[in-house]
Amino acid sequence: MNTSLSNRVALVTGASRGLGAAIAKSLAEAGAAVGVNYFGSGGMAEDVIKSIRAAGGKAATFKADVRDEGQVKGMVESVEKQFGGPVDILVINATGPQPMLKLEELTWRACLDQLEFFVKSPVLLVQAVLPQMKRRKYGRIIQIGSEVFARGVPEFSNYVSAKGAQLGLSRSWAKELAPFQITVNTVSPGWIPTERHVTDPQSAKDAYAAEVPMRRMGIPNDVGAAVVFLASDAANFITGQNIAVNGGNTLG
Question: Could you give phi then psi for residue 90, rounded to 5 degrees?
Answer without folding.
Answer: -110, 120
